């Protein structure tokens, strides 16, 4: 026992208190019997084997026994520290192994005397920062616990040499390692999720919408904080043009359907991005008086840079077109949900600007799906549902389907027939040959073979036809508002539609005058509406 006493300060103090003791109890010894045996071998001059796997436990045991230089020169603590600095910290794998080993001895490894954990963190982060292109470092870090991973990534981000996209890829690898089998009752998984969200790069596009959507879905499962959910919704919203319909299929917390409110919030973030930083769009008022002094070149450069920043932060027209397509696709998917109220469907559909939809085919399909899934809707609800549908932006196929759709309000069917007639007239005009349109327009009076008069560029009976069409439209509104949803009401609507088809019939061989006049009539109708 004398070699142990010579090198272990703790044993010396215990023995000095009671020189007659023949045994010493060491409860809660770090590293257990194996670590104590390694220290004892060193004291008796027996060679020991050290590696990254046992270094931390032996170093903590050495500190517990107080085998320091103060007790004896050349003691074990000095040799272990030298091995740690010159061998373990220089290797990538060894540094990771040592850092994982500190978990069992966290309090001791954090102490200033040892400092094993912070030294491992700094060594790993410096290696990542020195060579971000190193293959597989993200997967290697994914094996760390969340506390160690958090500390390493904070240092990596603070250095600033790792591209934001690469940081995002690393976070995705870590989430794939720890979150797929997460459960609500496990708080450690919730901590993992919230730490990952806090580590997300601030740069737009550094993390894809698919990954953000996955985190948002996991946050519902794990019961994450509202702050975490709100941050994920904001991040998806500012780059919503990159999302797919699948990315937006976020379930409610209780699993009763899809969370339309979250998608509406994403759309709101997208439409308002850049507005808080944007200066007023109207030019400042000029004071009356002599001409103002010319601004300096530097002032003009600053304003130009500010305007460029504003353009880059605000959503572009092309991005809004993409978002409009995604939202309509999302509406098609959720329209069949039995618990989706009309108000939420309409609010999300109308939140998309009109110019962000090049056509309304997808919107019509969503409305049709909703009507078929909710056939007990009242008259006013059906009208409200179709309020944002623009019949002029429907394709021929969609018009044909909608004109025979008995679930649509009658007014929508009437508008469809009217604009379908206008489309047919436009197609006929394109096929007609007009060798000298200027001479044609200059003519004061020409009479066609089908009874059409070009006097004043208006067909004979055009006023009465327009009035009749308006009367039929009003009649349809009255029928739709006064009648119920019984079979007789449906038959009346079909009869009105049949009359309108006969009213809007085009002659088999339309003359050029008819085409020009019909186009003008359409313009008159549009203005009157």
Automatic annotation (TrEMBL):
Pfam families: NPH3 (PF03000). The keyword Membrane does not apply. It comes from the Eukaryota. Residues 284-296 have a biased composition (Basic residues). InterPro entries: NPH3/RPT2-like, NPH3_dom, SKP1/BTB/POZ_sf. Residues 135-423 form the NPH3 domain. The keyword RNA-binding does not apply. Keywords: Ubl conjugation pathway. PROSITE patterns: NPH3. Pathway: Protein modification; protein ubiquitination. Residues 271-311 are annotated as: Disordered. Transmembrane segments: none annotated. SUPFAM superfamilies: POZ domain. Belongs to the NPH3 family. This is BTB/POZ domain-containing protein. It comes from Acorus gramineus (Dwarf sweet flag). The lineage of its organism: Eukaryota, Viridiplantae, Streptophyta, Embryophyta, Tracheophyta.
